[in-house]
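Hi all, long-time lurker, first post. I run a small reading group and we've been trying to get comfortable going from sequence to structure in the token notation. Rather than ask abstract questions, I figured I'd post a concrete chain and ask someone more experienced to write out its structure so we can walk through it together at our next meeting. Sequence below, copied exactly:
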Amino acid sequence: PEMRSAGPARSAIEAAGTKPLQPYLARIDAVKTRDDLIRLFAAPGFAAPVEVGIEPDFADPTHYVAIATQGGLGLPDRDYYLLQGEKYDAIRAAYRAYVIKIQQLAGFPDAQARADRIIALETKLATDFWPRAKRRDLQGIYHPMTQTQLSSLAPQFDWPLYLRAAGLNSVPTIIAAETTAITAAGQRLDDVPLATWKARYSFHFAS
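-- Answer (accepted) --
Happy to help. Here is the structure in token form:
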């Protein structure tokens, strides 16, 4: 039965084109302020440069804690953006081609220029993200903080707003993992235009 339904299902998907994307892309397009962007960070399906969520407590795995941690990148790890050599040059070239192609298929204008801005932003984030070896030090990524302390660590995020949008506003303590990366990601909110953030989220959601 599954095999028999695959043809019609594929046809329906092809016929729909990019229409199913439109409500989500419209939500990104509606972002006009940093507060709007932070609310988007908290929404499911929109990976943030600093992600907040619930995980088992490193110090006591029988309990859960709220945690703020460096977010995801388009490539698997920071090294793919930063390491030198033909292997990584080829990976980055293929990634750029992919970013362009997805945007063209989605009907986004100026796909090449947008791809360059998106990759430049991700490279900035990757530069400040902690490498895997450093993240394996559980004591090194365990920094319990109040909302006030988080606001001192990275004031650009408006933590009361972010945590409220994520449903975590009543949690008194949040574990800040990669502290310097969180601070640097906040600085990217200051020095990267809102339009570039929106371009990045439109591409990733389409992808």
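A couple of things your group might point at:
The mean pLDDT is 93.
The two ends are 29 Å apart (CA to CA).
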